[in-house]
Design goal:
single chain, about 65% helix
Length: about 120
């Protein structure tokens, strides 16, 4: 029996997909896939992200349970971010999607060129 799609279930799915589907979240999840990192390490490994955007992305990922934030009582305080088990479970679908993109990139590029050429001819 197929599950019923209600407004509430669609809204819930959309909210999670918007979190894990944005470009910064995917890059942060991949950056954390090999272990915990400090903020500055994440910023270096996520080229192009601003400090503010990294902060917002980490907060959102933490709120949704994909990332943990651990503060170590040192001077100055040391903060590390790591994937939770649910965050780790995202690695497989993200890698699968990345592989799909790689396999289909030539066809996507050709479709874009065809579309752009048709628009330019109008």
């Amino acid at each position: 029996m197929e599950p019923r799609h209600t407004h509430e279930s669609c809204t819930s799915v959309r909210s999670v997909l918007s979190r894990v589907g944005d470009k910064w979240s995917i890059l942060v999840i991949m950056a954390l896939s090999d272990g915990a990192k400090r903020f500055s390490e994440l910023q270096r490994s996520t080229e192009g992200i601003s400090q503010r955007m990294l902060t917002l992305t980490l907060r959102g990922l933490e709120r949704d349970g994909f990332v943990t934030r651990t503060v170590f009582p040192t001077i100055p305080p040391k903060v590390e971010y790591a994937l939770t088990p649910i965050g780790q479970s995202l690695r497989e679908p993200i890698n699968a999607l990345g592989g799909w993109v790689q396999r289909n990139l030539p066809a996507i590029a050709a479709a874009r060129e065809e579309f752009d050429a048709a628009r330019a001819a109008e």
